[in-house]
Write a sequence for this structure.
């Protein structure tokens, strides 16, 4: 008769009376049901948040990807977000193709990860760093004037050049090139073009 209950022939009240012990009051049964619902909704929220996060992050470096950068760039350059002065910096790993050619793409991936970490470690929590593509990174620096953005980029460049990337037995010297633009010099909507 239980299999008939699954097919909907037995009324649900009769079915529940067979599978749920009669010693449990209905409020306890409802409590279990509510707990199950909350747990299910919580799991779904965590899953969707994870999907959203992975759609915005570069899987190799765990930095924001180009799509997320565009979102923040549009947000910070709109009149709604008061973050002036606003600076933007493009950072390239010099001769990265040679690193891949000489040591292989796996080593190249480690170089990207470690350079990403160096850049991140030298930024403030309000700065937005993204892997723009290949070996190119872009950083949005809100509340940062021309003098400060140059100081930050020089610190990143110096740190990278004085700390070779170590992969297994290899010490790989890396240099960076950077272009910067600040809202003090040009209109905020032109930052992207000027920094690149």
């Amino acid at each position: 008769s239980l299999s008939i209950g699954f097919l909907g022939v037995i009324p649900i009240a009769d079915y529940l009376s067979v599978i749920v012990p009669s010693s449990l009051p209905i409020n306890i049964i409802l409590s279990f049901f509510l707990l199950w619902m909350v747990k299910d909704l919580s799991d779904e929220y965590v899953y969707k948040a994870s999907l959203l996060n992975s759609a915005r992050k570069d899987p190799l470096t765990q930095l924001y990807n180009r799509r997320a950068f565009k979102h923040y760039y549009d947000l910070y350059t709109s009149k709604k977000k008061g973050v002036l002065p606003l600076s933007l910096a493009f950072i390239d790993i010099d001769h990265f193709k040679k690193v891949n050619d000489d040591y292989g793409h796996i080593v190249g991936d480690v170089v990207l990860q470690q350079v990403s970490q160096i850049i991140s470690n030298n930024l403030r929590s309000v700065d937005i760093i993204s892997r723009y593509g290949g070996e190119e990174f872009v950083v949005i620096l809100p509340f940062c004037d021309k003098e400060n953005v140059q100081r930050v980029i020089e610190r990143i460049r110096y740190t990278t050049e004085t700390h070779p990337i170590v992969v297994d037995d290899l010490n790989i010297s890396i240099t960076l090139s950077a272009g910067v633009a600040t809202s003090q010099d040009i209109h905020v909507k032109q930052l992207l073009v000027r920094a690149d």
